[in-house]
Protein: Annexin
Amino acid sequence: MATLKVPAAVPAVADDCEQLRKAFEGWGTNEELIISILGHRDAAQRRAIRRAYAETYGQELLRSITDEISGDFERAVILWTLDPAERDAVLANEAARKWQPGNRVLVEIACARSSAQLFAVRQAYHDRFKHSLEEDVAAHATGDFRKLLVPLVTAYRYEGQEVNTRLAHSEAKILHEKIHHKKYSDDEIIRILTTRSKAQLLATFNYYNDEYGHRINKDLKGDPKDEFLQTLRAVIRCFTCPERYLEKVARQAIAGLGTDENALTRVITTRAEVDLKLIAEAYQKRNSVPLERAVAGDTSGDYERLLLALLGQE
Amino acid sequence: MATLKVPAAVPAVADDCEQLRKAFEGWGTNEELIISILGHRDAAQRRAIRRAYAETYGQELLRSITDEISGDFERAVILWTLDPAERDAVLANEAARKWQPGNRVLVEIACARSSAQLFAVRQAYHDRFKHSLEEDVAAHATGDFRKLLVPLVTAYRYEGQEVNTRLAHSEAKILHEKIHHKKYSDDEIIRILTTRSKAQLLATFNYYNDEYGHRINKDLKGDPKDEFLQTLRAVIRCFTCPERYLEKVARQAIAGLGTDENALTRVITTRAEVDLKLIAEAYQKRNSVPLERAVAGDTSGDYERLLLALLGQE
Structure:
């Protein structure tokens, strides 16, 4: 359910590199050319372009980009051009280093990726930052957030569809009891959310709903300023309905005065090759406006053009 | 520094399979033939034999072994024949399911393996047990042990040699302060031990020693019956001197009346292809007896013969 559009006949990698080099050279930069190439190549193609570009011109493609463009457009081109695991590592590193309770990027990366993808992020993190992801999260996050985030980012969940019904019942009961007593950061809540497989958790949440008459996330709605509760809800939503969770991130980025460009760029660059079509459908359904039109209304220039290209606009 | 002896001219895989099949067939089992083959093949060769055996005879090699032999010999042959990651997954699963405070197998697997090896164990655990390792550890271990063991088994430590000296100083100070106040399970102690790279931890422990005049493990010697303290010391020893730690495991397995066959089998099967020569040297130095002779004195029969083969005896 990707939105990325790759042309039927993709030019040779050497040609793409040459065109990009031309886009950077001379007076001014040809931003449209950059978008027309990088905005229509998949991860493997972008990787091949980066490799060939560095070999041909003796300079990293990302360095050339950084030298030529700036602002939100630069950030979007850079993030998009990176490999998915590398991109998540960069986002996770920013989120860890400037950690604050309201930042839910780490939750998104830990919970809306497959186990293998999350592990690839940890490998890319080593290569790029000479640290482990968990070490940076543990060193910056504090209190209950650390207790939750460290096991979230280090999880390697089983991904089979097997479900243990008895366990789902007993753990739904534990969750209900702890939530009922407002022990939101209890070890057992954290153990269940950070170690069980997604299939097992869905069964647990379903049983919770059936047995107690509310979705678990409804019972986790307390003080809207309680960032820990919001983080727990984000974890659960990333497991149960990642595209609706990400629709909300996009909606909040666009809503109101001003735009949260970082969040909008993140949703579009991380999902254009994954499920951005589903996110856009959820957006249209929820807001009665196509996501493309909302993005066009809230952004401008080359930044707008790149986002719309990634959203699949012809 | 392996002890395993593989012949210069290894028979074809098909021949090994045929010989093994012969060893299982007819009245009685030819244990010596089993040892002469499997006890002298490396992990890749054993893997090839398992694959070819299953294809040729329509039965898993491990199943044929289990049908024919028993007891300590069976357990040793099975563990040895498994791939290293699979073997560790089996050992970790036993340790998690029957978890008790005195069991330090999980520490050994989490701390005396490389980051990539530990991750391979987690992958093998999925395949074999349809669960994640951390989920089983978290479900069985309790209290402070859970708080320590879950991050230990989920760590993917950075393995570069870079050391941040300032950090080593500040974290040595934190460790000293917490230990001084007997806060052995403090979040900060656990954070440091479970997330920092081994190179960084060695620098921290060295600085601790220089600054406070004692090795950290000396300061962690309290009540000898305190299993948590012993576990912390095991963690640190697995980082600082794994072969001396494992020498001690072997020594305690052999010492006194009776033998701890599980521990002895574990040390020999997990290290024969790694560093068993170093462990044997440490043993000889510490006990003034060669490890081979001590093993021969404490075991018997085919079990003894397999262990001695893995110890490199001609």
